[in-house]
Amino acid sequence: MREPGADVLIVGGGMVGASLALALAGSPIRLAMVEAVVPRAAEQPSYDDRSTALAPTSRRVFQALGCWDAIAAGAAAITHIHVSDQGQFGIARLDARSEGLDALGHVVPNRVLGQALHSRLAGQPVLRQYCPARVVALEDVGDRVRVTIEGEQGAEMVEARLVVAADGTRSPVREQLGLGVRETDYGQVGIIANVTPDQDHLGRAFERFTREGPLALLPLPGGHLSLVWTVHQSRARQLMALDDAGFLQRLQQAFGYRLGRLLRVGERACYPLHLVRSDARRSGRVVMVGNAAHTLHPVAGQGFNLALRDVAELAEHLHRAVVAGQDPGDARLLDSYLRARTPDYRRVVGFTDGLVRLFSNRLPGLTLGRNLGLSMLGVMPELRRALMYQAMGRGVPLPRLARGLPLTADEDVVHG
Ligand SMILES: Cc1cc2nc3c(=O)[nH]c(=O)nc-3n(C[C@H](O)[C@H](O)[C@H](O)COP(=O)(O)OP(=O)(O)OC[C@H]3O[C@@H](n4cnc5c(N)ncnc54)[C@H](O)[C@@H]3O)c2cc1C
User: Fold this and answer.
1) Domain limits at 357?
2) Is residue 392 part of a domain?
3) For residue 219, which of 137, 156, 175, 403 sits 20 to 30 Å off, Cα-Cα?
4) How would residue 414 be classed by pLDDT, with cut points 50, 70 and 90?
């Protein structure tokens, strides 16, 4: 057994686990992280072909962690958001300048994000990384958790005061603990691909609610677009079976000609879309974050942004505790973290789930209501601002990192 073990052991070095590791790296916490798949591998499930829309709160977290420049170098700014309902009159436009911002968000390919996080982590001497390695068993031994890690050299045991499960939607840690989930299957699949249009996107992001579900085209560097097309499972099979020309034709029909002709499409991949919530976000000395705690429908691009605010709050709680000589796995500490995050969690889950249901429904009354809603967004600044606050992760008290501040108040520097 490795002695003296770790204060905090993070299971999963995907987008959320690696962000937490980085947030804690400047702290006196003895930190370990276990990741099953090396970050640059083609089969890495977190840093795959998807792109992520980062809200301004996420940008501030990454600025505070010193990796924003590396992310921004491979990201595109969203300067406008254009929301429409196929075949209906309602259209809403949100724009950064009229909100006094330089960008409403940034879109970054997941691989770029992974590279930025892991190259920054590589320079952190306090972090012990096990990769490729899997956590295969956990045992509560009173004031610690004994964790069995299986790597290339065989099995190894590590004891930690706190285990953070950041091991994804089907979290093996959560299963080990015997925790159940509440799952809503929307019966939908997200088809993702990069698409090249004939016209420059000029930083515009498009969210179009089609008969089958929402279709998002987000700006990427180099004039490309990141597509997330939500369709029913049977329709997804048909669309995936088409050749590129056939697929582009269907996409063009659904999206229209706002960016001229859609010229090329890259490799397509499918993701099942559901809402999965862990029955508990803490069990003893284990706390769940990211997809292990809550997996959301990507319709509003909220899953990672919400998780990053959780990470910021958790890091702040843990840092404060360890500096004060307290146990980072203490139940009161972890419950205080969860209480602080509950309003944001409920708000984002409710907003995302409501949006999926509202825009998946073709009842005439609802269609009219939502078109009025979309049109009203254009003329009512308060309504528009409320939506912007939701999409940008504001409107709730934010942890220090999400305000661009370091973990401690010692040297407060607000980053632009
Ligand atoms: C199509 C799509 C588009 C999206 N777009 C957006 C967006 O625009 N904005 C946004 O905010 N969110 C978006 N999301 C959500 C976002 O992708 C998730 O919030 C994010 O991937 C969660 O990351 P995670 O690290 O929690 O989990 P994962 O990405 O699943 O990573 C889990 C990690 O744990 C590792 N692991 C698993 N088991 C073990 C084990 N036993 N031992 C060690 N390691 C293990 C895995 O190898 C993996 O690296 C989107 C999601 C989808 C499906």
Assistant:
1) 6-182+274-403
2) yes
3) 403
4) very low
